[in-house]
C-alpha cells in the first residue's frame, strides 16, 4: 500500500531495513551489522559522557549519562530516557544523540537507561529497573549535580510504555516526583486493536504484526497491568504534565492520541502533536526533513518549558 509521505521523507523509505519480529535474533544481527557501518556515538563539543552502574534495593541497572562539560553552580534538571525497540531491540546508546540535543538546549543531565530486553527478560523486569534508576537518581542528586524537583521522564516507542508505566508506578508509590513526561510515538496499549494498528500492516519500521509479536515477547503470556500497558490505567489523574508526539502513518498513532485524550480528561496538563506525512520514528531516520526537525524541536522544547516552569514555582 502507498502512503502520502512528506516529500522530504519519501526518499528514505526505500532504503529502510525490514524489521520483522518473527525472527528476533535475525533482526538483531541485521541491525548490529548495519550499525557497524556508522561510527559510534561520541559526545559533541562541550558534552561529557560517563557510564554509571546503579543499584537500588537489589535491582541493578546501567545508566549512560551525558552532561554539559561546564557545570553550573546551580543544580541541573535531569531527563531519564528509555530507548525504543519493541521491547526486544535497541540499546541505551541509540538515544544519546537526541539526549545531547536536550542537554545543549536545557543544560540538563541526560540519562539513558540500559534496561534488559525481552524475551530474555519479561515484564516487570525493565519497569523495575526503570523504578530503580529513578529512585537512585533522586537519592544521588548531589553526586549527579541535579535538582531532585526537576527530574523528567521520557521514552520513544516501547520506551514510551516504560516511561508512562513508570510515571504511574511512581505516582502510586509516592515518588520520586516527576516534573514532566515526554512520549515520542509511544506504545501504550497491549490490546493491539486501534484503527491505526489494524490499518497499517505494511508501514516501514513498524507494522501490525510487529506490534502483536512485541507484546507477546514482553508479556510471555502474563496478564498486562497498567504499569506494563499504561492504557489499562483506570485513573490517570495525578500524572505529570505530558507531551505526546505521534506520526501519521504509524500503527501506534491512535493509542498515543487516545492516551493523550484520557490524560486531558483526567485534568493532567497534556499536549499532543501529530506530524503529517511521517512514519514510525521517522524523525530519527530522516532528521534532515523539516517535519522531523519540528518534531525533535518540539520534544526538546517540552522539556525546556517544564524545567523553566519548575524553577519559577520553586522561586515562589
From TrEMBL:
Residues 79-281 form the Alpha/beta hydrolase fold-3 domain. GO terms for molecular function: hydrolase activity. It comes from the Bacteria. Pfam families: Abhydrolase_3 (PF07859). Keywords: Hydrolase. This is Esterase. It comes from Glutamicibacter uratoxydans (Arthrobacter uratoxydans).
